[in-house]
Amino acid sequence: MSDILVVEDETVLARSIVAFLERRGFPARFAVDASSARAMFEEQIPRMVILDYKLNTDDGLELLRWMQQRDDRVQIVMMTGHGDVSVAVQAMKAGARDFLTKPASLASIAALASDLMLDDMGAGLDPVGVGRIIGRSSAANALRKHVKQLATAVLSGEPRPGVLIVGPPGSGKELIATALHESTPLSGTQVRVDCTLLDENATASLTEAVRAAESGTLLLCNVCQLERVAQASLLRLLDRSAAAPALIATANAHLSSNDFLPDLLFRLQVGWIDVPALSERTADILPIADFVARQLARAAGQSRPRWSSGARAKLLEYDWPGNVAELVNCIQRAMLMREADTIEATHIRPFSATIDPATDPVPTLRELELGAIRKALAQTGGNVSRAAEMLGITRDTLRYRMEKFELQRD
């Protein structure tokens, strides 16, 4: 078997892809139509094929099926147009290993080639910095670029400006915060504070956290839960610190001056990162799933997991309302359910799709109460005061209920 065959009807693009791959050590050839691709495939079977879905009058899916019939060991990557999720699903069901959304950068194509042709299962499983942001979508590329820019930002010799990371629950905000911290030249450590868990001893907790994070990073998770008194305490602590830490905060929605002291708000949100939902990063679903499965397999001393075409298609068909957190949960379940090295479609059971409404039992009062609290918090972006108002109870009552149910926000 040779290395890579690129099937692309735009000759200039095909040549560019081949040249880029060869500069990175992957021998490659290209074909501009289905007939020449078949001939080159028969002459020397490649290890990997990068196949454009639209080949003038030729059908890329039909060519994919033909190649799979000839040799199903070949790893085929389908290139689709932006938003062609249905085509990607069809390609997965036909046996494609992965897909790329055009226009795909040459670096993304080379990264995918490197990943699929690696023999070492452990390679790349301990990323640091922006390497923690897994994916090949334009959104993932933009996130990595933005993190790099913010990591090196310095204003008039001051410490790195505060950064607010905003995104829906489960989207990976804390992971991006860690990537940002690891990408900076700061000498100190990152100290995490979950503002949801701060109580009447908030000032003491913040004092300890600011001291531990000096010359490093103070990560304020769920910062919208920070009480006004605690906000004032934090401002005083930062002003009095000889080596005040850089600030990173996470929230499910952008902050408002109605809920935050202006001085702290302006300090926190100098820069910000908007993290999209996983449903807006379809091209990242398979890379994230494979990364998580490989990490779990390595931890268990198992061989690299394989994916059936049905499993890959099922991952792409689901809209992942729980975002990356739900995808990780699903892969953990799949790894537990599999009986051999291959993850099958029957092993893909997303959390929010595991309940059949027709057979779902009547919920208990406790479940109804917990569900109402979660829904109110989600609709208010995690703001306890507004959620309590929506539920018709006091803020203290809601806090008591959250503690009772051990409810924590991402």
From TrEMBL:
<dbReference type="GO" id="GO:0043565">
    <property type="term" value="F:sequence-specific DNA binding"/>
</dbReference>
<dbReference type="GO" id="GO:0006355">
    <property type="term" value="P:regulation of DNA-templated transcription"/>
</dbReference>
<dbReference type="InterPro" id="IPR011006">
    <property type="entry name" value="CheY-like_superfamily"/>
</dbReference>
<keyword id="KW-0067">ATP-binding</keyword>
<keyword id="KW-0597">Phosphoprotein</keyword>
<dbReference type="GO" id="GO:0005524">
    <property type="term" value="F:ATP binding"/>
</dbReference>
<keyword id="KW-0805">Transcription regulation</keyword>
<dbReference type="Pfam" id="PF00072">
    <property type="entry name" value="Response_reg"/>
</dbReference>
<protein>
    <submittedName>
        <fullName>Sigma-54-dependent Fis family transcriptional regulator</fullName>
    </submittedName>
</protein>
<feature type="modified residue" description="4-aspartylphosphate">
    <location>
        <position position="52"/>
    </location>
</feature>
<keyword id="KW-0804">Transcription</keyword>
<dbReference type="GO" id="GO:0000160">
    <property type="term" value="P:phosphorelay signal transduction system"/>
</dbReference>
<feature type="domain" description="Sigma-54 factor interaction">
    <location>
        <begin position="133"/>
        <end position="336"/>
    </location>
</feature>
<dbReference type="InterPro" id="IPR002078">
    <property type="entry name" value="Sigma_54_int"/>
</dbReference>
<dbReference type="InterPro" id="IPR001789">
    <property type="entry name" value="Sig_transdc_resp-reg_receiver"/>
</dbReference>
<keyword id="KW-0902">Two-component regulatory system</keyword>
<dbReference type="Pfam" id="PF14532">
    <property type="entry name" value="Sigma54_activ_2"/>
</dbReference>
<dbReference type="InterPro" id="IPR009057">
    <property type="entry name" value="Homeodomain-like_sf"/>
</dbReference>
<keyword id="KW-0547">Nucleotide-binding</keyword>
<dbReference type="InterPro" id="IPR002197">
    <property type="entry name" value="HTH_Fis"/>
</dbReference>
<dbReference type="InterPro" id="IPR027417">
    <property type="entry name" value="P-loop_NTPase"/>
</dbReference>
<dbReference type="Pfam" id="PF02954">
    <property type="entry name" value="HTH_8"/>
</dbReference>
<dbReference type="InterPro" id="IPR058031">
    <property type="entry name" value="AAA_lid_NorR"/>
</dbReference>
<dbReference type="Pfam" id="PF25601">
    <property type="entry name" value="AAA_lid_14"/>
</dbReference>
<feature type="domain" description="Response regulatory">
    <location>
        <begin position="3"/>
        <end position="117"/>
    </location>
</feature>
